[in-house]
Specification:
Length: 275
Amino acid sequence: MTLPSDYHMHTPLCRHASGEPIEYAARAVALGLTEIGFSDHNPMPDDDFDDWRMRLDQLDAYVEAVGRARRQQPQLRILLALEVDFLPGCEDWVRELAGRHPWDYFIGSVHYLNREWDIDNPKKLARWDACDRWEVWSTYTDLLRQAAASGLFEIIGHCDLCKKFGHRPDRDPTPLFQPFLRTAAEQGVAIELNTAGLRKECREIYPAPSILRLAHEEGVAITFGSDAHAPEEVGADFAAALELARSVGYGETVRFEQRQRTLVPLPSAGTERSG
């Protein structure tokens, strides 16, 4: 395998992606990937919760679309997953979703600082102007810690998403991540190297090198995700992500099946294709 598994991909059901799962799968095969995972945004009990996730009545259609991709590309291992928002008080809903289908993993992501503010939403960008950035990052990293401690997720997604638009605090935020990363290590929760940050204003993989270095020191496992919202983004910049992982000391990644994880070696240096 020349590239690691791409575990973070979306579908048009989230209302801000293009291309069907069969197209994402075909792109993965063309790149030489042997495993991918679809992890579209989870539905909420209230379909009006926001405008960037599937409706609850579309969940079965999502599962069937992944099934069609599996049937069309039998040589490619295709996993079924969700990217699930962590919001305190919604844990029972996540547990209910977990029982609806045979998921391979859940990516737990923090998008909401509170019920009114999804901090990566460009429609709410002005809210940053009225905030103390250190306080935002502090609150955000504590929500990450709670997510890792919840037992609901196999992976925590884009763990420094609050840098997306370039809103960084005036001092190094890396120490804020230590309680979260220590909890992730204790709970056996992985974090992802998410290359979508290179396509955003921050122009940096999630997480930053200093945070990933701390994750390695704490013994936190890693996965890789393109956060693809179009077929051409599958596996995007994975060569850079592999280089970053190796640079801080990682030699392994984790794979999942039916929510059980297995450690596997990273591809040998120099064998990856970036697409």
